[in-house]
Amino acid sequence: MDEQGRKMSKSLGNFISVDEVLRHFGADIVRLWISSIDYKDEIPTSLKTIESAVDDYRKIRNTFRFLLANLYDFDPQKDAVGVADLRELDRWALARLHSLLQAVYAEFDEHQFHRVFRRLLQFCVNDMSTFYFDVLKDVLYCDGATSGRRRSAQTALWHILNALVRVFAPILVHTCEEVWTHANIPNKEESVHLALMPEVDEELLDAALIERYERFFKVRKEVQRQIEELRKERKIGSSLEAEVRLFAEDEHLARFLSSFGEEFLSELLIVSAVEIAESKDGLSAAREMHGLYLEALPSRNAKCERCWRQRLDVGSNPQFPKLCQRCASVVASFSVP
User: Fold this and answer.
1) Higher per-residue confidence, 53 vs 184
2) What residues form DSSP beta bridges with 293?
3) Domains annotated on the chain, with CATH
4) Weakest mean pLDDT among 8-17, 87-96, 198-207, 226-235
5) Predicted confidence (pLDDT) at residue 1 exceeds the cutoff of 50
6) To which H or E segment does residue 298 belong?
7) Distance between CA atoms of 255 and 235, rounded to whole angstroms?
8) What angle do helix axes 18-25 and 47-69 make, rounded to 10 degrees?
9) Helix or strand or coil: residue 244?
10) CA 134 → CA 25, 90, 104, distances in Å?
11) What are the helix (H) ranges across 123-206?
12) Distance set, CA 35 to CA 113, 153, 244 (Å)
């Protein structure tokens, strides 16, 4: 059907040749577009509707680029961290991955390919790019190359890459073949299309951990709302220029926030510092999360020139007066020829 709902035919002049579409977009974008549509319904077709798939393709390709770029110095046979030693955030990412695989395989069995695509896209955009990758940048770029936190993150990224390239392969046949050639996967098949689909790992399925982070995302939403207000008022540029104070009136919520710890919360919220306050004095009630009070304000601490966090310990190492203690330690470890 064309955009007006008319059946396509040469006599009406609304016919689009397959050759023209492939020349214009390439095979992978056309396959992506087809996979995003419920084939049981009538399919409106035009160059404009197919073009809507280009942005989705770019988001998926950027996901693969981030994964490959941050695994350049990772050898899964030497550097991988065991599941028991992974950081909580990285265990959450793998729990989400295997929960995704479980759901995707069920959709494949039902031939619901458009739902498969939607789930995969949402994982790439919402779970990975918008949250997980953004949080990981500090650890990946600023921690020591072989630090436990960085190796934990890379272990999770490697598992995500190894799974996504296989699951996306039936849709993005050429892109996934390209990714496969660059991926460091020991004893891999000659082609991704000869590889088996990844198995769901029961050990990594963790509904409680996923639920824990769903609750955290509600806190994060409230914090982001206040940080955005600071941006609009031009009091800060990036979220790293802000500090956050939190108070929970509810005992269960208070224990929940404390279970993360202030330092880890600042990492997850991508702010310079988090304080769990002892009272709600001076704080604002959250709009949607009952019992939560908070305040986001510009940090008064000096800015580390390497990680850009504004911390009390900037300048504590006289050898590196413009760096925080973490960054000073990393830079001091660099060997100078």
Assistant:
1) 184
2) 247, 285
3) 18-194 (1.10.730.10), 216-300 (3.30.2320.20)
4) 8-17
5) no
6) strand 292-298
7) 31
8) 40
9) strand
10) 30, 13, 25
11) 133-142, 148-168, 173-182
12) 6, 31, 43
